[in-house]
Amino acid sequence: MMNTMVIFAEFFVVILKVLWAFVTAGAKWVVRPKEKSVAGQVCVITGAGSGLGRLFAKEFARRRAVLVLWDINSKSNEETAELVREIYRELDSESPMAKEGAIGGLEEVLPFKPQVYTYVCDVGKRESVYSTAEKVRREVGNVDMLINNAGVVSGHHLLECPDELIERTMVVNCHAHFWDYCASKFGAIGFHESLSHEIKASDKDGIKMTLVCPYLVDTGMFKGCRIRKEIEPFLPPLKPEFCVTQSMRAILTDQAMICTPRIVYMVNFMKSFLPFEAIVCMYRFLGADKCMYPFLAQRKELMNNNEVKEDI
């Protein structure tokens, strides 16, 4: 009898905690939490040579972080580093009065020392990651923040995708964080959730994780990818700058997960209780089942053009 009462009491407490979680989550939608300071902290960004990685680098530079840029392309990585140095020079040239109004406040400006480091690293090769990480420890110091941004995409159906490309996608998109694009990113979500729980169980309160789940982002990586044309005006691709701004806000407020646009939250919620066939119907209604076809056609045409040039 006593055990039954204890179980009911604990269940009641759980219900209260769940309700409180809803209240606090709702409050954060109304009252925006204050962004934490990253001034002087060492931030490693993978895939920093272009796209979202470059934008993340610029945003963290504006917040006076020490940047460590990783990319497989040394030229594009150096171009990002130069953009970061320009931001550093602008911050350094500001008057004390102007600095007081800068992101993070005056207290973060005073100890600021502009530093950016570039490393060529293939995150799909563990040896490259290990050696580069060791160089960073030796040359820069301990890392405070890691932005796992690097990613590749094939765009093919599973049975049409070469094994080498599947392995490359999994290695870069999933294994690099510890099989085709969506599966690899779903693996990253599972990795995030399991590691978050493991960190909580270990009482490592100083380690924070943020899962970024954006809708289709308008970068060169997905050029040609289109949903149903009748739906596209209501759900256009995200601007990279908007995606990074929202992600930065989530990272700097220790938000566990950020979905952009917010309708993606509804999609995740609906997936938890809707029948599979209902999800398939919605998927097809949006044209998501064929959204990669224009992407593949463009890539095939590009490959054919490259082959013609090589023959010439």
From TrEMBL:
Family: Belongs to the short-chain dehydrogenases/reductases (SDR) family.
One MF term in the entry's GO annotations: oxidoreductase activity, acting on the CH-OH group of donors, NAD or NADP as acceptor
Organism (species): Oncorhynchus tshawytscha (Chinook salmon)
Pfam family, one: adh_short
A Gene Ontology biological process term: retinol metabolic process
Listed InterPro entries: NAD(P)-bd_dom_sf (IPR036291), SDR_fam (IPR002347)
Listed GO CC annotations: lipid droplet
Protein name: Uncharacterized protein
